[in-house]
Design goal:
This protein has helices at about 1-5, 10-25, 35-45, 80-90, 105-110, 130-140, 185-190, 200-205, 210-225, 230-245, 250-260, 260-265, 270-280, 290-305, 325-355, 365-375, 385-390, 395-405, 410-425, 440-455, 465-475, 480-500; strands at about 25-30, 50-55, 95-100, 120-125, 145-150, 155-160, 165, 380, 510, 515-520. With about 525 residues, the chain is of the alpha/beta class. The chain folds into 4 domains: about 1-165 and about 480-520, NAD(P)-binding Rossmann-like Domain (Rossmann fold); about 185-265, no CATH class; about 270-380, no CATH class; about 385-475, no CATH class. The strands form 2 sheets. Strands 3-2-1-4-5-6-9-10 form an 8-stranded mixed sheet, with helices on both faces. Strands 7-8 form a two-stranded antiparallel ribbon. Keywords: Nucleotide-binding, Nucleus, Ubl conjugation pathway. It comes from Populus davidiana. InterPro entries: APP-BP1 (IPR030667), ThiF/MoeB/HesA (IPR045886), ThiF_NAD_FAD-bd (IPR000594), Ubiquitin-activating_enz (IPR035985). Pathway: Protein modification; protein neddylation. Pfam families: ThiF.
Length: about 525
């Protein structure tokens, strides 16, 4: 493992060995290897996915040389899938690469079971009807699916999977799990053993802020009938009490306590997001339930019993001004509580597994430990069927986006990206592809847009003339700069889904290259 550790050093720091192992076991299928598909796979091959299969029935043409770095002059007239696969293989010889020279649309129709062998399918530049068919196929086979498309100066990325549960969501900002306003007995005893009025100035300035806040919060609660500061004036008063405890202006620990005082004001218990997860119908588990939902069921029992309304403690504490002895002792108290909570959850997991007729040891200790550490940050993402989104749209959302100045262009591009497929189905070409037909194509595309909006239940809504004209000027071109950006977003989503780390996008990501904006539409 030494060589891969060196090779993937930077990314291992982001998603760890567990995430990298998931990538190295993944089998990725790419449909259409134009610029968007090639750029997506390039990022994944460099990242060390296990294997790739490139599917494309077209030949390399001269026009491909200007927008796809995975082909060169020697490739003209040859299988595009073969050439792209060869170039991608050169980027990382640890990745198994193969190609199939067949048009994806034909494969979707003729051999739907073909896709069940893959971990994830990246479908690029597909028309609407093929998207609908492939979505059903992948959901039935429990295969992850990502759609991506570049079109002139716009493009989209859309994830599609029944359900995606994330344990390691890794939010950018999240409140430390310190329980300052709800200390357990050991933490309370530790805080009580330390005198904040100690005469020694060195000891006074090296008392950890956690201890200061636990003691001050308890004092406040005693004086206010068990209530913690809640109003603006009360919070200000609490901070003034902390300032009053300082005996010198250079006491960094008290400054840290004042800065972290908001952690005392945070409500006890679990977040509304976690509450929603533990009360999800899937938390009523049976023998077919996933490991994630079995652990959620155990978490639900823990919160209602041993946890006293709280999730298991994470066990980590931030850096703070403190003597080494006090910091180490404080760290041990948090780690001991986290370990105790883990053991309770582990036992509950085993009991639930036994109850539903599964092996009590089928969920590993490492997984349960990771679940406990991240219990407050769990996320469950669910995605609408593409067919539902297309045929039964959320009309209020569509109308809201069309009339919202901030989102109207993104929604306009969403409509136009679907309208050009209708245009293509009617005229066997995309708007603006042929010189001399621009004015006629603008009129035809406008008709397609009106028809689509009517079908969406948005009669009377419009897309601006400028945007329709711009879409025709794109001429269905797949610009490399846009394709590279869309491919980067798509590959990032692939990594999120495969590693089950970070939260994947829910909705349709639209890139607006005219205004240099990216927005997510929840439709």
């Amino acid at each position: 493992m030494a060589e891969p550790k060196t090779k993937y050093d930077r990314q291992l720091r982001i998603w760890g060995e567990q995430g990298q192992t998931a990538l190295e076991k993944a089998s990725i299928c790419l449909l259409n290897c134009g610029p968007t598909g090639s750029e997506t796979l390039k990022n994944l091959v460099l990242g060390g996915v296990g294997s790739i299969t490139v599917i494309d029935g077209s030949k390399v043409e001269l026009g491909d040389l200007g927008n796809n770095f995975m082909v060169d002059e020697s490739c003209v007239g040859q299988s595009k899938a073969k050439c792209v696969c060869t170039f991608l293989q050169e980027l990382n010889d640890a990745v198994k690469a193969k190609f199939i020279e067949e048009y994806p649309e034909a494969l979707v129709d003729s051999n739907p079971s073909f896709f069940s062998q893959f971990t994830l399918v990246v479908a690029t530049q597909l028309a609407e009807d093929s998207m609908v068919k492939l979505d059903k196929i992948c959901r039935e086979a429990n295969v992850l699916l990502i759609f991506a498309r570049s079109y002139g100066l716009t493009g989209f990325v859309r994830n599609s999977v029944k359900e995606h549960a994330v344990i390691e969501s890794k939010p950018d900002h999240f409140l430390d799990d310190l329980r300052l306003n709800n200390p357990w007995p050991e933490l309370k005893r530790f805080a009580e053993s330390i005198d904040l009025k100690v005469a020694d100035p060195v000891a006074h300035k090296h008392t950890p802020y956690v201890v200061i806040l636990v003691k001050m919060a308890e004092e406040w609660a005693k004086a206010h009938g068990g209530a913690l500061p809640s109003t603006r004036d009360e919070k200000k008063e609490f901070k003034e009490l902390l300032k009053a405890g300082m005996v010198a202006i250079d006491e960094d620990n008290y400054k840290e306590a004042i800065e972290a005082s908001f952690k005392v004001f945070a409500p006890r218990g679990i977040s509304s997001d976690l509450l929603q997860i533990i009360h999800d119908s899937c938390s009523e588990v049976d023998s077919n339930s996933s490991d994630f939902w079995v652990m959620v069921a155990a978490l639900k029992e823990f919160i209602a019993n041993e946890g006293g309304g709280e999730a298991p403690l994470e066990g980590s504490i931030p850096d703070m001004t403190s003597s080494t002895e006090l910091y180490v002792n404080l760290q041990k108290i948090y780690l001991a509580k986290a370990e105790a909570d883990f053991l309770v959850i582990q036992q509950r997991v085993k009991s639930i597994l036994k109850r539903i007729g599964r092996d009590p040891d089928s969920i590993s200790k490492a997984m349960i430990k990771s679940f406990c550490k991240n219990a407050r940050k769990l996320k469950v993402c669910r995605y609408r069927l593409i067919e539902d989104e297309f045929s039964n749209p959320a009309v209020p959302e569509v109308q809201k986006y069309l009339t919202d100045e901030e989102y109207s262009v993104a929604m306009g591009f969403y409509i136009l990206l679907r309208a050009v497929d209708r245009f293509s189905a009617n005229y066997n070409s995309f708007p603006g592809q042929f010189e001399g037909e621009m004015d006629e194509d603008i009129s035809r595309l406008k008709t397609a847009v009106v028809g689509l909006l009517n079908d969406l239940g948005c009669n009377g809504s419009t897309v601006t003339e400028d945007l329709i004209s711009e879409m025709c000027r794109f001429g269905a071109s797949e610009l490399h700069a846009v394709a590279a950006f869309i491919g980067g977003i798509a590959s990032q989503e692939v990594i999120k889904l495969i590693t089950k780390q970070f939260v994947p996008m829910v909705g349709t990501f639209i890139f607006n290259g005219i205004d240099q904006k990216s927005q997510l539409l929840a439709l």
